[in-house]
Each structure stands twice: as C-alpha cells, then as structure tokens.
Amino acid sequence: MVVGVLSAPASGPRIAPIGFNAAMRSAVGAADTVPRRRPTAVEYSDAYYTRAKIHRLATYAEFPLFAAEYTLGQRLLKEERTGVPSDGLKTAHTTVALGLGALFTVNTVTGVWNLWDSRRDPAGRTRLLIHSAAMLGADAGFMLAGATGGGANEGGSDANRHRTIAISSMALATAGTVMMWLFPD
Fold first, then answer.
1. pLDDT by residue (tens digit) across 32-65?
2. Which pLDDT belongs to residue 3?
C-alpha cells in the first residue's frame, strides 16, 4: 500500500504518493485535468449590426399594433352581434393586420438571417433559440389567423376560432419579445 503525503503546489493542496518524483506528479496532475476548448473570436459584419438595429427598432411597433388590432377586432365582434359592422372598421382591421404581417416579415427575415450569421457564437445561444422558436410559432399562428379570418365575417364559432388563434399568437410573440428585453446579452 502506498501512503500519501500532503503537498501544496500553486494549484492548491494535493495528495502525492510517497516515492513519486516530480515528473510522475506532473503526469498525474495532467491526467486529472479536463481539456477545455479555447474560446474563439466570432466576427460579425456591419450588415449583421444593421439587420439587428432594424430588427430591434421594428419591434417597438409590435405592441401598439397588437393593441390596435385587438381593439378593432373586439369592436368588429360587437358590431356583428348587434348588427352589421361598418366597412371602415373592417378595412381598418385588415389594414392593421397587414401592418402586423409586414412587421413580422421584416423581423423574421432579419432575425433568421442574424441567427444564421451568429451560429458559431455560443454566447446566449439558448436564449436566441427559444426566442426564435417563439417568434416562428407566432408567425405560423398569425398566418393561420389570417387564413381563418374570412370565415369570421359570419360570427359564431369561426369568429371565436379566429380570435383565439390571433390572441394566442400575440401572447406567444409578446413572451418571445419580453424575454429578449428582460434577459439581454
């Protein structure tokens, strides 16, 4: 049986078996060390930063458009239940929906492009992937809401389905956006 002796090198106290010379202690220490990948520098282009700025600025229009669309949709549902909704209200609802579609198209293109350009950067990767999944899910929801919007004119279950899909998509997009604001780089 080998008995150990406590020695205190610069890396902290270690037990070294008696009879080991310095070379043997060094080899044992190296075997205990877990090799780590050295961090590599990730370089971003000026276009990356321009897209990121467009993406960030466009996001500020998201919540006012959500509020307008929700308000117009609620008024449409109320007027459909009590009578015939005005053509101006329908036009406004459609116009704001198209604005949301344009906003989400711009943010999807700039976001996915920058996600691809940052694929080699491990910093904040999980957060970016969760944000991307939430926003792409919201994109799909908004497309589905638009597809079910035509049947909402008759009211009833079609209108409720359209409203549920739209509100769920807004909630998912809000969660994805607020996450980026609360947990920045």
1. 566 777 777 888 999 999 999 999 999 999 999 9
2. 47
DSSP state letters, 120-141: T--TTHHHHHHHHHHHHHHHHH
Handedness of CA 104, 107, 113, 117 (dihedral sign): negative
Task: Give the separation between CA 184 and CA 78, rounded to whole angstroms.
Answer: 40
Asked if residue 77 and residue 21 are part of one domain, the reply reads no
In a domain, 177, yes or no: yes
Longest CA pairwise span in the chain (Å): 97
Please give the average per-residue pLDDT across 19-35, as a whole number.
Answer: 60
List CB contacts of 37: < 8 A, sequence separation 6 or more: none
Q: How many separate helices (H) and strands (E) can be counted in the chain?
A: 6, 2
Q: Are 174 and 66 in contact (CB under 8 A)?
A: yes
Residues 79 and 162 in one domain: yes
Residue with tokens 């106290």: 13
What is the spatial distance between Cα 4 and Cα 30, in angstroms, rounded to a whole number?
Answer: 18
Name the more confident of 12 and 153. 153
Q: Alpha-carbon distance 55 to 111, whole Å?
A: 7
Structural domain including 10 reads: 1-36
